[in-house]
Amino acid sequence: xxxxxxxxxxxxxxxxxxxxxxxxxxxxDDVLLEVGADGHWRRxxxxxxxxxxxxxxxxxxxxxxxxxxxHAFQRAFAGLAERREGEADDFWSWRDRMYRVANAxxxxxxxxxxxxLYVELLRGGYTQVCEFHYLQHAPGGRPYDDPLALSMAxxxxxxxxxxxxxxxxxxxxxxxxEAPALRPDQQRFHAGAEDVWQRSLEFGRRVAAxxxxxxVPLNAGLAVHSVRAAAAASIAHLRTLAEGFDxxxxxxxxxxxxxxxDCLAATGRTPIAWLASQGWLDARWQLVxxxxxxxxxxxxxxxxxxxxxxxxxxxxxxxxxxxxxPAWLAAGVDLAIGSDSQATRSWxxxxxxxxxxxxxxxxxxxxCAQPGHARAPQPDTAASLFESARAGGGRAAGxxxxxxxxxxxxxxxxxDPDDASLAGLxxxxxxDALVFSSPSxxxxxxxxxxxxxxxxxxxxxVERVTAAFAQAMAEVWGSAA
Length: 481
Known about the structure:
By secondary structure, this protein is an alpha/beta fold. It contains 14 helices and 17 strands. The termini are far apart.
């Protein structure tokens, strides 16, 4: 029931060849890639001589990654909350300031902000973005004439940038466990279970009817803001509505210690333990942050088949804490990554800080390497994290296959051969250098669904997108001041 839009003007089959590409979890030589008419890889072959008709890629190639958790409108707030005038500053005080921006955004400014962000995400190596979308109404909670006005603004922004989009309308109905209604500055977020279900379906229908898939790959899933922001009965109702739904279901969970304390007081369990106790978790579910998880909770999530989405730059920026990454990996849980509040828009930096946070916490090196993994031993830290993010990100976006393999969408990154971080290194260590030898040059070329979104570092609409973003920022901050 996942709504995946196919491009009506899909490109003809095309051939590409590169002397090195990341296939099957490692670098392979002499790789031939064929794009089918549906924008997916029709053929991926290694140790193959270049056919005369194949385009030779300018550098080593990797799969694009999925940005598995994004709040696009928060790009207008990035870098603007880095001062403290009182005794303390934490996630909750940051959130109050962020709401001022959330209540200043219009469909027009959201499109401009998101398009600018999505171009940045392409430059950072993401080819699909999962929008955890809780801006539903006009400020104050007044419905728009078109209930999907803000959702379609995100679809327009994805088209402007040329990135794939998974829209996740969010169930959001209360301010907390002991606050059955929303605060005044949260009114535009309100959506019940029926609202979320219908918006997901209607987005897919509208995308298909308008032929928007000809512009970018689009699909829709579902989301619950958090256990604190949705009543148990509403989450249960959404799950019932989604009984036959095969798309992703995302939820914020266990991000802050205060959330754990409040959930324990209200339900007798912490958020992950409560979700697991309901018997709801399965392979569709994505637990975003999961920062504060006990060993038994990690084991329960691993047994359920659910995934986890970590957002290291945002979790660091907000002072959330550090997830137990080695335990999640040992439990066999895929760890997707997300840009979340947009403090960083590059997966290389997210992976780097995912590992560095563990090194600082544990006073060890190469913590996230998995040389003793029973099924797929991986002593290289960058490869361990990249493969987890590749597989987990594909699932978070509702994609059955993701990477350089036949049947997966034809998404591709081409590293710049002039990148100083790669100079002189054997190609078996290129991924290590791309992640841990910073700074690195942006990706030279980026392909999404068989079409080039970036070529030679250039985006075809960057001037227009940048100008619209500057105007939107002036409008948002004029009204949010």
